[in-house]
Amino acid sequence: MGLYQKIFRNSNLDISLGACINCYFFSRIYEVDPDIEVYVLLFSAVWVIYTMDRLLDTRKELIVELPRHRFHMKNSRILFFVSLVLIIISARLLPRVEESIIKIGLLMSVIMGIYLFLVWKKVSIPKEIIIALMYTSGVALAPIVLSEGEIKWMLLFQHSTLAFTNLVIISWFERVADRSNGVYNITNRLDRRTPVLINSLFFIFLACGFFSGLEHGWSFQVPLILMWGTFVMIWSYRKLFSRDDLYGMVADGAFFLPALVVLF
To answer: To the nearest 5 percent, what fractions of the chain are helix, strand and coil?
Structure first.
């Protein structure tokens, strides 16, 4: 667990690889086969966005430091250099990707650029909602464009609900540290109403899953339901998962579960 925390999680590799796995999940749903360049670009975009977001966090005068804060402060120059390298590699790969994917991807990049600018200016924004929507849009973009078919809105809504639930749960565990550092996440705003939101999200996911299963089949529901079950477990046993960033490792690790789609 120590090696996973120090290298894999703190450096955002888990989130970036998880994004690629979820892109593959949607490619199976839409029955397409994106080129390897798509996965490289997605990995790079997610890694750079999360790294820049956390490097911006370290600019603040932190009273309570989380493990990722210490990692990014200690390795800020290396992380910034790697980000530049990934941006250069991505720019070289763009001509090999379908034009429509590039256009929508660039629009999403502009939105995330505005988001990072607002974070840099310390503007209070509902980042959990923005990140959840952009995450699902990013991982599903290429499969949807390549399929040229009907957009499966219910599955997309399910996935974004899971992404949002993940962020809300993590924010709840980190609410005290964030409040001490002057960062008011969604759970700090909701305060005692947070359990109502999380339980509502659990119910909304199940309701969407029922109708989505009827419309698109039940095989693709298995990884999503396992992700949902992971979040329910973390929330139900909050005291157990509050130790040593276990909540974050398990919650973000849940996004590897869509890899089970290879079994179907």
So the answer is: 85, 0, 15
Contact 11, 70 (CB under 8 A): no
Range of the domain at 189: 2-263
* Predicted local distance difference test score (pLDDT) of residue 56: 77
Q: Measured between alpha carbons, how far is 130 from 186 in angstroms, rounded to an integer?
A: 12
pTM for this model (two decimals) = 0.89
Which residues, at least 6 apart from 186, have a Cβ–Cβ distance to it below 8 Å? Answer: 126, 128, 129, 167, 168, 171, 194, 197
Other CB atoms within 10 A of residue 164 CB = 23
Q: Cα–chain-centroid distance for residue 32?
A: 22
End-to-end CA distance of the chain: 30
Tell me how far CA of residue 162 lies from CA of 25, 136, 231, in angstroms: 14, 9, 8
State the pLDDT at residue 18.
95
Q: Number of structural domains, the chain?
A: 1
In the block, tokens 């464009």 appear at 145
Is 18:256 a contact under the CB 8 Å cutoff? yes
In sequence order, the 6+-apart residues with CB closer than 8 A to the CB of 38 are 23, 97, 101, 142
The predicted structure's pLDDT at residue 169: 95
Count the alpha carbons within 13 Å of 6 in the hemisphere toward its beta carbon: 4
The per-residue pLDDT for range 173-191, each reduced to its tens digit, is: 988 877 776 666 788 788 8
Residue 180's CB: how many other CB atoms inside 10 A?
11
Give tens-digit pLDDT for 40-62. Answer: 999 999 999 889 888 877 766 55
The residue type found at 48 is: V
